[in-house]
Amino acid sequence: MEEKRCRRTNDYHHSRGTEVALLRCSALVLPYLSLAELAAISSTCKTLNQISKIITSRRTSDASRGFENIPIPFINPVLGDFEPYPYFLYTRVQTLELNPDFHQSWGSNTDNGPDLKARRHDPFLFRVEDAHGCECVRCDSGDSLCHCLDSGELLLTRECGPSCRCETGCGNRVTQGGVSVKLKIVKDERKGWGLYATELIPKGKFVCEYAGELLATKEAKRRQQMYDELALSGHISPALLVVKEHLPSGNACMRINIDATRVGNVARFINHSCDGGNISTVIVRSSGALLPRICLFASRDIQESEELTFSYGDVRLRPNGQQCFCGSSSCAGVMPSEHT
């Protein structure tokens, strides 16, 4: 009798030890899985199902994984649609092309841990060596003659940067701290996921940078061709932004290709509107930074719960291309398309 009791006790401790080991291992591995992978593994046992639910809850509560100062939740009100969130890798700033095998933790209990500040990204991908910036302490003070300040521009186009003496709290660094307003990502039955305001955003207010992989033009063209084919079959929602800065003559003098399809921030969810939308795209340069950044500002007052939109372009080379659901009075019925 005593021998059976001891055997039962040993079996219990062995079972309990196995469960603890599974929990520890799962907590390390599962946050790196995609939505499809997480769904598949959650069906294998009760313990993994419970852990998967916790991870899903954390993911839907903040698309930014804690990289932004303000959490940005996912909301899916579409009846019969059970997609809790779209899976992508998050970056607050421009990044070089990432290895396809790169993974990022999302939904672990350390996403908002003490090392968060260290994990937030430098807004300047490349710096100009020995560049000279301003010597101001605070460049936005009334008596400042800082040469980094825009002179009477409606929207900010120049800021202090890595070569300047002033620190991150300077009022002439408004685009360098990530998302600055309260937002949410909501799914629409026809348009898919979109970005919405959860507070009044006044005209001229900085919203966020358009962040993603910075691509060479050859790679951007290759990806756009691939995305066009996949988008027509409904297998992908591409977020490759091409911005061209023109000389007064009309010739392009600079081109920036930012792909937020796989790696990006919340700007990847901003949908197109044929009437131009309520967001302006602005090329912002910073003292000492080699590359400009694409920053998004409110072009008019944006009301709480209103969707954020901007124009993807006016050219439509494919009359039978992807259908547009912007709903504006000037809707062309087809999404913009042009040679990348």
From TrEMBL:
Domain of life, per lineage: Eukaryota
Keyword Translocase: no
Domain SET: from-to ranges: 181-313
Pfam families linked: SET
Protein name: Histone-lysine N-methyltransferase SUVR3
Keyword set, alphabetical order: Chromosome, Membrane, Metal-binding, Methyltransferase, S-adenosyl-L-methionine, Transferase, Transmembrane, Transmembrane helix, Zinc
GO biological process: methylation
Annotated ranges, domain Post-SET: 320-336
GO CC annotations, alphabetized: chromosome
Main location: nucleus
Compartment annotation: Chromosome
Residues annotated as transmembrane: 21-41
Any one GO molecular function term: methyltransferase activity
InterPro entries: H3K9_Histone-Lys_N-MTase (IPR050973), Post-SET_dom (IPR003616), SET_dom (IPR001214), SET_dom_sf (IPR046341)
